[in-house]
Amino acid sequence: MALKQHKDEQVRYEQQVDNSRQYVLPFIEQTKPVGKGVNVMEIGTGEGGVLVPFMEKGAFCVGVDLNPLRIDVANSFFANEIAEGKIEFLYKNVYDDDFLQRFKGFFDVIILKDAIEHIPEQEKFIPYLRNFLKEGGQIFFGFPPWYMPFGGHQQIADHKLGMMPWYHILPKPLYRGMLKMIGENEGVIKELMEIYDTRISIERFERIVRNSGYKFLNKQHYLINPIYKYKFGWQPRKQSKLISAIPFFRNFVTTCVYYTIG
């Protein structure tokens, strides 16, 4: 069955705020202080909760998303802050010429929290983000490696059998067939198949970053994803350095990775 936060925008928003305040912002500030005069963009912003701690520290924030309904929700949640010029939410594609012209070289920090694994053509997208960075700007990525137990995002399934771990790494026809067999609805199947197509591993992500000419500024792998304390009641736990150093195998037992690059 789908988790509560998948259907309750207020719950999602509150979890975004808390997770960002406790984990995302502190991680970014290890390499980039945030305060007045700092411009922050989140791609795939959803309800905008990740940006709250950054806005509270005085940063000007922009949230962009391809889902107009979630942008509408963010605009309603932040009506006062938008009116005060502290934050802005846009239903836009970052590839659009007018978006690029407006924000070229504008941001000190770009955030992709649980977003890169949904974006196609990552080999094109990740280097493209440099267009929006100021000199010395940084990009944060937080995502679940594809091969981890729930790397297919199967926890969004409506049927409890659809939430089984690791079966998402089956060949795509078998994976789709299993979802149909248990009676999963077509909308969820479509979303899960899209994630299958855009899946990303730790090794592939790091290869794209290196090939794009970025440098790794900070890294943290998690055995237990910080967001899981909301989803499953599990306390966050960092991955051991030994496991993090073992290529490929680490993907299966690492539920989340954080990186900053620049």
Task: Explain the overall architecture.
- This protein folds into two domains: 206 residues, Rossmann fold (3-Layer(aba) Sandwich), CATH 3.40.50; 44 residues, no CATH class.
- The longest helix has 21 residues.
- It starts with 8 loop residues before the first helix and ends with a strand.
- The mean pLDDT is 95.
- 38% of the residues lie in helices and 19% in strands.
- It is α/β, with parallel strands linked by helices.
- An eight-stranded mixed β-sheet has the order 3-2-1-4-5-8-6-7, with helices on both faces.
Could you name the key traits of this structure?
globular, 8 strands, alpha/beta, 262 residues, Rossmann fold, 2 domains, single chain
